[in-house]
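ingest -> validate -> predict -> emit
validate: passed (alphabet ok, no gaps, 449 aa)
predict: started
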Amino acid sequence: MLDRDTLKYLDEALGILERGFLELPGFHASVDTSRLRAVLHDTARRLQDNFPYPHPLYAGQMLKPPHAVARLAYMLSMWINPNNHALDGGRASSAMEKEAVAGIARLFGYRTHLGHLCASGTIANLEALWAARHTQPGKVLASSQAHYTHGRMCEVLQSPFTSVTADAQGRMDMNALEDILRRERVSTVVATLGTTALGAVDPLHDILKLRDRHGFRVHVDAAYGGYFTLIETLDPDARAAFDVMGEADSIVVDPHKHGLQPYGCGCVLFRDPGVGRFYRHDSPYTYFTSGDLHLGEISLECSRAGAGAVALWATQQLLPMERGGEFARGLAASRQAALALHAQLSADRRYLAGPRPELDIVVWTLAARGRAAAGRRAQAVFDAAEKRQLYLALLRVPDELAAAWWPALARDADSVMALRSCLMKPEHADWLPRITAILDTAAREAAGA
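emit:
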């Protein structure tokens, strides 16, 4: 499961890296290798207490293994340990970050941009909402299926926040949005392109039409779903939303989700480079080594690992972000696996499937007389599958969605416990027969319980 064959290329690359510093006097840090070896072995044993995230039988949460080139490039940079706050802390890695971020901006259709990497989608969304508050202060709206980070970050920023009802597909309900816009002044609307629970894609194209009438800013949270813009075979509504991403005021994407990067690697982009004025600050001990832009001058974070930028840059060199390319084909395979699993679940009377996946997340529960029994059976399948080394996730489906998806279930609970599977690995398409066979056994065991 754990790739070790590629480690020989790290040693070769370290030799190349070291040749860049041959003019320096010789120096080797002292390391007690016997103690180091013992601690590493203890560390490896501790890390065994994990789910097998890199394996195709892990089909639960959004945990996608980084590509080998990302792991190796990240480790390679650790011998330098660059800090991408100021150029004198990471000259090469800062240049790599600017190039990598510019590539992502082009992917989403930005002709001009200001952007940088950060620790996570949460921090990236915080920065986008912070800039929105400076540009156009006031109320922020996001779908009830949007990530909870938006409400939390609005609390941090002391910006008023309102949740907008979702439709039966888990997307922002346009009628509900219009009702709020008619009654209240709204400053920012967050469109989620790939919700965390369902992978639902808010109708960005329709939200932008409302912006033309009501004058609010549009922020796109594509932390999970952004890279799916490369997929030609998306359903029409999702394709229409991804096609207009370049018209949004700001965008967030997480390369550590579908971008094959180690945690943590988020990215925030602004269409207007002028938002850089909100970041402007002075430091009596930084920014002197170059007149060029230091990434710390356009980021709320200060010290920040340059290793993430090195890993992302290397990955984009190996796997260009282009339609029809190897990277895009991997995303397409994940979505095909999700569609195939959803079709099988929909055809099996033991299951109650959720909506057709827009990206690569599948949600379903177990057939029963009522919601409570369905939830108990879903939990039993979850437990039985894990015993057979298939790892799923659980999702509590709220009343409004449960009523729309599974109206035949007696409403003896205000929600339904469901199973959720993020089929984020391209290999999931090949492993689907094994996955469904385990599900079949788990469902039979749950029915007899």
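The mean pLDDT is 95.
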